[in-house]
Amino acid sequence: MKLIIENVEDNDVKVTFNFKGKDYSETWTDIGSGCATTGRSIVSQLEYDGITTEGTDIEDLLTSVEVADFMSLSEREKNW
Questions:
Q1: What is the pLDDT of residue 9?
Q2: Which residue from 45, 7, 56, 48 is spatially nearest to 29, judged by alpha carbons?
Q3: How far is Cα 80 from Cα 51, in angstroms, rounded to an integer?
Q4: Where are the extended beta strands (E) located within 1-80?
Q5: Closest C-alpha among 23, 7, 4 to residue 15
Q6: Cα 67 to the chain's mean position, in Å?
Q7: I need a labelling partner for 2 at 20 to 30 A (CA). Which of 24, 31, 57, 62 fits?
Q8: Nearest to 13 by CA among 32, 36, 33
Q9: pTM of the predicted model, to two decimals?
Q10: What angle do CA 39, 17, 8 make, to 5 degrees?
Q11: Cβ 58 vs Cβ 1: under 8 Å
Q12: CA-CA distance, 20 to 66, in Å (whole number)?
């Protein structure tokens, strides 16, 4: 199991969750008033593969990722 958060473009962040050897990823973009996913979410991909996430530790982990905080830190990194 692995969780990767990375910049992929100017204001986009890619979150990849590797579970049972398969990568599930979603891309987040800054929309000015916050951030939103583009495309299918990791949770919907997992559920499509028959993996229940609601009420599980997987859901807790994925909802605890603060993408907006990562975006902010990433932007400040350019100044260091």
A1: 78
A2: 7
A3: 41
A4: 2-7, 12-19, 22-30, 35-38
A5: 4
A6: 7
A7: 31
A8: 36
A9: 0.89
A10: 60
A11: no
A12: 23
